[in-house]
Design a protein that fits this description.
Number of helices: 6
Pfam families: DUF6691
Number of strands: 0
Largest sheet: none
Order of helices and strands: HHHHHH
Radius of gyration: 19 Å
Helix content: 55-70%
Low-confidence stretches: none
Mean pLDDT: 88
Number of domains: 1
Protein name: Putative transporter component
Keywords: Membrane, Transmembrane, Transmembrane helix
InterPro entries: DUF6691
Length: 145
Amino acid sequence: MRLLSAFAIGLVFGCGILISGMGNPAKVMNFFDVAGTWDPSLAFVMGGALLVTAIGYRLVFKMDRPAFSSTFSLPTKQDLDVKLIGGSAIFGIGWGMTGFCPGGLVPVLGLGLGEPLLTGAAIVAGMLAARLATRMTIKEQPAGA
């Protein structure tokens, strides 16, 4: 049931991305072109997503436990560090350069176009590079640091 639920949620999300036009990189890039062909529709899509998420969190956290797990798994880390800020900056730059964020990229991959495939490959390469850099940083720290 858990897998079926995840599939249904992903299907709804992917359809929402495609229906809203957020799978079209030109539409996304026009949002960032404030001085040119600015298209504010991305702000409305994000606002709608935030509203739905806020309502969803309020409803879910009134429950004793999640529907398909015995406990809630919530992050405990709350501080801002260089990895978070740097990763966010790289994410934003990549999104602005390509017009694809990972969430909007996945439904478009099924179209078989070159740009989404190349962007997906770049995202995977970036994830692998970040993992390698993290491993190298951990190995370089002296014992007891």
